[in-house]
Design brief:
The protein has about 170 residues and is mainly α. About 60% of the residues lie in helices and about 5% in strands. It is built from seven helices and two strands. Strands 1-2 form a two-stranded antiparallel ribbon. A hairpin with a 5-residue loop joins strand 1 and strand 2 (about 80). Helix 1 (about 15-30) crosses helix 3 and helix 2 crosses helix 3.
């Protein structure tokens, strides 16, 4: 099994080469394929994705044109991943612009579900010392902002604020 395994399945779009390009591009951008990692030879890549070798060859040519793959000839040759230095802003912007309202809503729902659960797990698993440190940092950030907008903390408001945020109660 290669690093491509989670992405492998029968290609179903009208342009099989374009879908293969999209899948490998996403794998590179997500870090599933490392910089310098060798891709399977065309025949094996085609077999893994359930496409013709010519389709795999066409996809590799497009990936080379995009600067995401380099093909070397010779004994140690093959197709190797070239991972970009930064995020693919134009590519991501294009994908985002192509999404429907429903897809955007689904994406936001997925993000909220994952982020919320991650925050819950982090809170449940945090050491008491880390929680105290976070509250101390929060106080350093919160109080000056309140003073800037004219809020003067009183002893009563301070104790209410601390009791609501206290890790022990």
């Amino acid at each position: 099994m290669s690093a491509l395994s989670p992405l492998i399945g029968q290609v179903t779009s009208t342009s099989r080469a374009d879908e293969l390009v999209q899948r490998i591009t996403e794998a590179i951008h997500l870090g599933l394929l490392s910089d310098g990692e060798q891709l399977p030879v065309e025949v094996e890549l085609a077999r893994q994705f359930g496409v013709a070798p010519m389709t795999a060859r066409e996809a590799l040519a497009e990936l080379r044109d995009r600067g995401l793959v380099e093909t070397r000839r010779g004994r140690r040759g093959g197709s190797f991943v070239i991972r970009p230095d930064g995020p693919p802003v134009d590519y991501l912007r294009g994908r985002l612009a192509a999404m429907t309202v429903s897809e955007l809503r689904d994406l936001a729902d997925e993000h909220l579900a994952v982020a919320g659960q991650a925050a819950k797990l982090a809170a449940e698993r945090a050491a008491v010392a880390n929680v105290r440190r976070l509250f101390a940092l929060g106080e350093q950030l919160a109080w000056p902002r309140r003073w800037e907008i004219g809020f003067e903390p009183t002893a009563a408001s301070t104790s209410r604020w601390r009791s609501r945020r206290s890790p022990n109660g």
